[in-house]
Amino acid sequence: MIRHATARWRPWVRRDGHLALVVAILLVWSVVGSGIASMLLLPAWVITTQLIFAGSLETARLRRRAWLGQYLQAASPWHRWLRGGLVMIGWHQLLGILLALLLLVKLRLLSPVYWPVLLIGVAGLIWLRSVMRRRLARHVIAEYLPAVTRRLQAWPLGLLLTVLLVLLALWLPQHYLVGLGWDEALMRHVPADGHDSLLGFFERLARALEVTQYWAMQNATERGELSESLALVGWLLLLLVQSAFAWAYVRLLMGAETLREATLEALPMKRGKERE
Where is pLDDT greater, at 147 or 249? Predict the structure, then answer.
C-alpha cells in the first residue's frame, strides 16, 4: 500500500516538487523568529537572488536571440557582439538583488491571509504551464518550448497576483490615520525599537512605506486635507509595491522552473559521459 501511494505521488514530486519546496522555504522564512531570520538573511538573499536571476536572464536571452535571428544575417559577427554578455548579466543580477530583498522583507510583514493568494499563484503556474505547452507544442521548436512557455505565462500570472494582492490589501483593515500628521503616524505605527539588524532596518523601512501610502490615501479620501496629487502618490505606492512583490514572486517561481529544466537536461549528458 505504501509502495502504491509512493508510486502515485512520484510523478507529481518530479514535476512540481521544486515549486512546493520553494513555497515551503518561503513560508518558514516568513514565520521564523527575528534573530534566526537576521542570521539567515544573507544566504536567503543570495539564493533568492540567483533564482530570480536565472529566470530573468533566460527571458532576456530568449528575447535577444529572437531579435538577432529576425534582423541579422546568420554570418554577421554582430550575433556574437549583441547576444548578451557581462552587461546583461550584471543588469539582471542587480534586478535580482532588488527584487529578492523586496520579496524577503515583504514576506516577513505579510498577514497569513495572503498565503492563499501565493498558493493560487503556484496553482496558476502549474495550470498555465500544462495548457500552454499543449497549445504551443504544435508551433514552437521543441528545444525552446519550455523557455517560451515560461516567457508567455509570466505576464498573465503576474497580473493575476497583482490584482489579487491589491484587492486583499484594500479589503484588510488598516490603522486609522485620519487627522494624524505624517510624522505622528510613523511614530505610532512604525516600531523604533525593533530588532537591531540589517533585516530589522529593512522591515522598518517597508513598514514606514506602508504607513505612508495608507496615511495619504485615508486623509485625502476622508477629509480632503491633502492635495489630490499626494493621494495619487499613495495609490501609486500601493500599486507599485504590490506589483513589484507579485513580479518578484513570479520570477522566483520561474527561476525554480528554469533550474529544474537545466538539471533535467544536464543529467542525461552526465550519464552519457560516465558510460563513455
Answer: 249
